[in-house]
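Contributing new records

If you add data, match the layout below exactly. Sequence lines come first and carry their own label; structure lines follow with theirs. Keep one chain per record. Anything else will be rejected by the validation script.
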Amino acid sequence: MKVKNANKSSIKTQKLIRKVFAELLAEKRDLNKLTVTELTQRAGISRTTFYSHYDDVYAVAEDYENGLIERFFTIDRLLEIQDYQKLIDDFFVYIIENQNEYAMICHSLDIANTAARISNLAKEKFVEICNADSKITDKSFLETEISVVIDGVFSQYVKYCHRSTNVSIEDLRGFTVGWLHDFYVRRTSR
């Protein structure tokens, strides 16, 4: 994003650009089919205005994705969570509430990068909770197991968004809750 000292007008323009970007992405389902010309025409702004805020549509996509990620990982309730089940519950509630936005991102070409960023943040939070829990005595391959499961859930979610799997969000949630129970029992019973 180009604008450094954003005033109210600048913030309003950026929100408008991101909103129109989301609409166009939902319609076209391919980031490569979006153009600055189409975006500016639909938003009712000049190309000069657009370029004072962004370099291209890919910069808007990055800003849009960053906003989704930041909204989730800056939610006070998430930052304060020190309970596994609550983390999983809040995560799936957020994904379901923002399903349309994530589905749009899943159709962009950069979903692998976005999914990796979100899953890395989720893994860090999960590992932090595990390391703070004195009941977890078995820490062998802890980060590896968490990484494999979270990466797998994200992979299935992307397939779900692309409609290339029969796995639903409810299936992913059920699997994750079951895995979490088994994970906790195994790691606290030694």
